[in-house]
Amino acid sequence: MATIVLVHGAFQGGWVWREVAALLRSQGHAVHTPTLTGCGHLHHGARENAGLHAYINDVTDYLFYEGLEDVVLAGHSFSGLVLGGVAARAARLLRRAVFVDAVIPESDRSFVDVAGEAFRHMLEGNRVNGGRIRPWALKVFGVPAEREDWFKPRLCDFPAAAFLTPFPGEFDPAAVDAAYVTCRNTASPFIRAMAAKARGLDWPVSELDSGHCPMVTCPEALAARLDALAQPARAAA
Fold first, then answer.
1. Annotated catalytic residue: which of 26, 77, 107, 110?
2. Of 40, 73, 202, 211, which sees the most CB atoms within 10 A?
């Protein structure tokens, strides 16, 4: 049994991991699905100026208050930055960091800096109420129409500041044993490019036949991959 903490991406909440979490628990793992401040059932606490630091604090505090150690910490999409920040602060608590179709941090650079100008234009095109960003179109998430009624109503606006906050300090790829799970059908070119970046860092990389949200489109395959990566030996990747 492993302790697995699943961190959702932008606009979502812990709810998005429901099926994956159930499958992993059936394998005997202790699974946690924290929700970041202002997301999901915590949407009433949304703050326009909430940046990356707030979300790193959310997860670091969660590990502390829940008394979790030897954690397999998996993060999706935006939360690759959160994984990097938690690894910098609390590497001693982590067994492995698993980046699920996620951005890989770069020292002192924001999500927008890493993503490039095409993403910056999309970000500006989705601004509402100044400091908030409305969710992307479903095709960006890669969620099929038959799951729209479950997925779309649960999405929440996300603070623009989170995408614009530079990663705090230096990102050390060797700070924790890391692995990457890439999705073959992801629409975003810069996210697809992260797999090559992970290989360049000598991280094990595995591929799923999925759009950007495999926890929705192929929860069984993702749960199987996380189960394998939860094993102590890096050879499991």
1. 77
2. 73
* Cα–Cα distance, 73 to 161 (Å, whole number): 24
Per the CB < 8 A criterion, the answer to whether 98 and 79 are in contact is no
CB 156 within 8 A of CB 39: yes
Q: Could you tell me the CATH number of the domain that includes residue 128?
A: 3.40.50.1820
Cite the beta strand spans of the chain per DSSP E: 3-7, 30-32, 71-76, 94-100, 127-128, 132-133, 158-159, 178-183, 205-208
Is 77 catalytic? The answer is yes
Q: Does the model's pTM come out above 0.85?
A: yes
Query: What's the domain count of the chain?
Result: 1
Strand, coil or helix: 47: coil
Contact 45, 18 (CB under 8 A): no
Contact 73, 3 (CB under 8 A): no
Check whether 237 has a pLDDT greater than 80.
Answer: no
128 lies in which domain range? 3-236
Buried b (16+ CB within 10 A) or exposed e, 43-57: eeebeeebbbebbbb
Q: Which residues are within 8 A (CB) of 73 and not within 5 positions of it... i.e. 6 or more apart?
A: 5, 7, 59, 83, 86, 87, 94, 96, 97, 98
